[in-house]
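Please, structure for the following, as tokens.
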Amino acid sequence: MRNLPKPTLDAQKYYQLISSEKRGFRSRQLALAKNKVCVAYVEYLAKAHDFASLIPIDLPSTRKKALVHAYSSRTKSLTVMRDYLLAPEVNDFDECPYCGIGEPLTLDHYIPKETHPEFAILPANLVPLCHACNTAYKRDQFLCAGGNRIFIHSYFDTIPAYSFIRASIDSTGTETIVSFKINHDPANADFSLVLERQFLALNLAERFFKKSASMMSRNNPTFQRFFKSGGGARLAMELRALADGLRPSRTSNHWEVALIDALAASAEFCGGGFVKPIRRG
């Protein structure tokens, strides 16, 4: 989970460019929708911390379809926009900002184009995600039944300095049980609730467990080597050092940092639990 730099593209300029690259009827429909859409763009930014209150603008169905088509049918300018958004100006951008697992190769309409076609080609509404988060889980979801947001917005939601993702390790039995949950921050109650809804919607408990089981299995020979050279204390020390090395770039809200923190804190795991079968809690 991480923030991304807000796009600096001129949204109205790109709307005009994309409109001009369309032909005939669709080009005319986009031109007719321009004034209302540009007003909606301003409203989007004005309500960046209250997206749930955005009301779809009133447009004829032909113009709504033209707006959706402007995204789904590539033009030269749309391709330039997509390439820019999929390569934000951060050097370590190779993991999805929602899950920290898959490569972010798709653009998600944070506010769905199905309900708000006016934002179909708005750069600030297009967030790079991995295919699983975008297509398998988020799809066209935005608000839950109660009208509250389900997902954080990587461009506009500032992630508080708090460890929201918490891993738990239990090696007291015949297996090492691994589980993940969202740890609520009392000082940021609303953000905690949005993040918990996102955690559930994206099936992150299961996805984090699968990555954790693979990571622990691959590193088992290393765990055994540290244990043989200095017992559980040595293994715990090395795990803490590994987590601290990853934390500056991945933050404490990355599944792997949360996992390694929990492994290091588990006396049972470091004392020999690393050889036990791994099971999801």
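DSSP finds ten helices and five strands in the chain. The longest strand covers residues 176-182.
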